[in-house]
Every structure is written in structure tokens, then in C-alpha cells.
Task: inverse folding
């Protein structure tokens, strides 16, 4: 598991926690964790997706990343403005826009996004034994797989069912 996958797991867990702690009816909500997350994380996730699968559409990104369409549109506009991605018309359907990362940014983004989770969690695991580290990492892998299989979108609606192979 890499840092981007860890972020997706954490985001889904945060969404579940927010639901559990929702304010009673009539009581105003505090800003959600989603609003407090730096937009750079969403931008990096989009960049990683278009690096891994050049030619995705905005709809593909919504499905793959479980991020709202409006947020994907904002992120893509910002990334295009800054020269990170380019959009081009689909060869078969000129109404569709395909997205790819610019060559200039592919290597830098990929290097950041594939950071090892063990390295990212080092502050948490500093006093853990080797066995405890292995158990934590295995548990995170399992949670990651379960989150992907659950297929729940950011807005709580069900995503199209995904067939994710189980790891032994």
C-alpha cells in the first residue's frame, strides 16, 4: 500500500466517523473534515490517476476516486491552469474530454505518491516491534481492500460494484 491508498482509506474512515458524529437535526454542523483537507491531496490523487491511466475522463475520475463531480471539475481546472494536465477530445466522441498528465510533471508526482506507507507511518510505529509493525500494515491492507470492495462514494451513494480480487 502506498501513501495515496492510505489517504483513501483514511478519508473513507473519516467520512464514516463524520456520519456517526453528525449534529442532531436543527443544530448547525461544524466544518467537516473534508473541508479541512488540503486541496493539494485531491490534486495529487487526480494526478496519480491520470499518470497510471492516461486518457481518463472526468467521470472516470469521479468513479475511481469517489470524489464529487464538482470537486473533480475544480481540481482539473486548477491542474490544467498550472500546467500539470492537459485535456484533449476523445477520438470517438468529440464531446468527451480525455485527460493526461503533462510529461514535465509525471516523474515528480509519481515519486511523491508512491511513498511507502511504513515510511509515512514511522512516527506512529516508532516504538512498535517488528511483529506489531507487520500486523498494523497487514490490517491497513485489509481495511484498504474492504474499503475498495464496499465501493461507497463520497456522497454516501453506492458506487458501481467493483470486482476486487481477494488477497490470500
Result:
Amino acid at each position: 500500500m502506498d501513501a495515496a491508498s492510505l489517504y483513501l482509506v483514511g478519508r473513507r474512515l473519516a467520512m464514516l466517523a463524520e456520519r456517526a458524529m453528525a449534529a442532531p437535526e436543527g443544530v448547525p454542523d461544524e466544518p467537516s473534515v473534508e473541508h479541512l483537507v488540503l486541496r493539494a491531496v485531491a490534486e495529487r490523487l487526480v494526478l496519480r490517476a491520470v499518470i497510471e491511466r492516461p486518457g481518463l475522463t472526468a467521470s472516470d475520475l469521479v468513479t475511481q476516486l469517489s470524489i464529487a463531480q464538482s470537486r473533480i471539475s475544480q481540481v482539473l481546472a486548477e491542474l490544467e491552469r498550472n500546467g500539470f494536465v492537459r485535456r484533449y477530445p476523445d477520438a470517438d466522441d468529440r464531446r468527451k474530454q480525455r485527460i493526461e498528465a503533462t510529461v514535465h510533471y509525471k516523474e515528480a508526482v509519481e515519486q511523491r505518491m508512491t511513498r511507502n506507507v511504513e515510511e509515512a507511518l514511522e512516527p506512529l510505529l516508532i516504538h512498535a516491534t517488528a511483529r506489531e509493525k507487520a500486523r498494523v500494515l497487514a490490517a491497513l491492507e485489509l481495511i484498504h481492500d474492504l474499503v475498495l470492495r464496499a465501493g461507497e462514494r463520497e456522497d454516501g451513494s453506492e458506487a458501481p460494484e467493483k470486482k476486487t480480487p481477494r488477497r490470500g
Remarks:
- The two ends are 15 Å apart (CA to CA).
- Residues 3 and 115 are 6 Å apart (CA to CA).
- The chain has nine helices and two strands.
